[in-house]
């Protein structure tokens, strides 16, 4: 599948070879993680260049895919790349225009003087996931649900937002996550009005809504889930906000299907929230794609014209954030299928009320 995606995109540019530089695309192509390296894709063979920190691990790796030769990255690397391209009569080389800086591009033109370097936007290459990729995302989502269940059993008034964030971190590692996919967001009470609040020393109190946005990596792929739960009874106004966000997310979920314009999904949900009287308090796009990165194409926002396809994985995460009052966000991850969508996250979407403890 990956080879076909690259071959089709290179053919559109009249290219035969591609140099992958970004860690994300290298992992996507080879299933081998490294902080530095190159993958040279050619019609005859595919080469993985890694330095001495990774060479043994690469040679011993049983999960490596799409790689024919592993080459030590050293001060002769660019000469080797030039020789490989010359041996195949290749004089045009594609590179990741969405990852390579101009300074790096200038340097490469000096290192490969006989090559015409052609920019290729790879941002959309990873939109449609393979079955293997979906399985890794599902694993990350399952771990995230287990962490959320831990949270609901443990959380109580009197702990701080930072305490909860640390608990989440430890719980992810306990359940087998590789690492967090982003810094955990904990926003309680009035802090809930900040969509990307940084956890503070504020103590959780009875009557608070608590927004918890968290996720992890499993085998290089991410999860991204947000839940807003209540500590004890909350005001009728906060309940109404929650119900509005819940119904808005339900609407967005119902619209997920192959052939749907992602921008239209956002606009339908934004209109629903606006008609409910909260339009000015929904301040971000409805969702985004995810995979190796936490934010990938396609995006569901007001300007998006992306068309959803089977195999894409996207979030649906409407929110309402009212300064001085608080906020609610509910977020889940979905696989687009031929018949609609499949929810990958499994924590309850309905409002959970954590009963006050004596």
TrEMBL record:
Span of domain Peptidase M24: 136-338
Superkingdom field: Bacteria
A molecular function GO annotation: aminopeptidase activity
Pfam short name (any one): Peptidase_M24
Location of the Creatinase N-terminal domain: 6-125
PANTHER family according to UniProt: AMINOPEPTIDASE (PTHR46112), AMINOPEPTIDASE YPDF (PTHR46112:SF3)
Protein name, per record: Xaa-Pro dipeptidase
């Amino acid at each position: 599948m990956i080879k076909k995606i690259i071959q089709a995109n290179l053919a559109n540019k009249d290219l035969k070879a591609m140099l992958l530089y970004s860690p994300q695309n290298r992992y996507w192509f080879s299933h081998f993680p490294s902080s530095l390296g190159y993958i040279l894709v050619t019609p005859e063979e595919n080469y993985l260049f890694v330095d001495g920190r990774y060479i043994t691990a690469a040679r011993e790796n049983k999960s490596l895919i799409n790689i024919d030769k592993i080459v030590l990255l050293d001060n002769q690397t660019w000469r080797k790349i030039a020789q490989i391209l010359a041996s195949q009569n290749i004089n045009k080389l594609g590179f990741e225009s969405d990852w390579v800086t101009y300074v790096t591009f200038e340097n490469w033109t000096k290192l490969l003087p006989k090559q015409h370097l052609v920019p290729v936007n790879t941002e959309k290459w990873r939109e449609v996931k393979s079955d293997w990729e979906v399985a890794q995302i599902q694993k990350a989502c399952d771990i995230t649900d287990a962490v959320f269940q831990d949270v609901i059993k443990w959380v109580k008034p009197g702990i701080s937002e930072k305490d909860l964030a640390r608990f989440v971190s430890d719980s992810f590692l306990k359940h087998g996550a590789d690492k967090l996919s982003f810094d955990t967001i904990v926003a309680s009470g009035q802090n809930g009005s900040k969509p990307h609040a940084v956890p503070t020393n504020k103590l959780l109190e009875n009557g608070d809504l608590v927004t918890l946005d968290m996720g992890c990596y499993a085998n290089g792929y991410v999860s991204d889930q947000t839940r807003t739960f209540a500590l004890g009874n909350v005001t009728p106004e906060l309940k109404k906000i929650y119900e509005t966000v819940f119904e808005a997310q339900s609407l967005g979920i119902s619209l997920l299907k192959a052939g749907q314009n992602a921008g239209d999904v956002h606009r339908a949900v934004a209109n629903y929230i606006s008609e409910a009287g909260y339009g000015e308090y929904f301040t971000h796009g409805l969702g985004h794609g995810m995979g190796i990165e936490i934010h990938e194409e396609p995006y569901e926002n007001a300007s998006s014209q992306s068309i959803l396809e089977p195999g894409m994985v996207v979030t649906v995460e409407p929110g309402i954030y009212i300064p001085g009052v608080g906020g609610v966000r509910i977020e889940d991850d979905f696989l687009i299928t031929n018949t609609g969508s499949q929810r990958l996250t499994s924590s309850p979407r309905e409002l959970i009320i954590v009963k006050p403890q004596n």
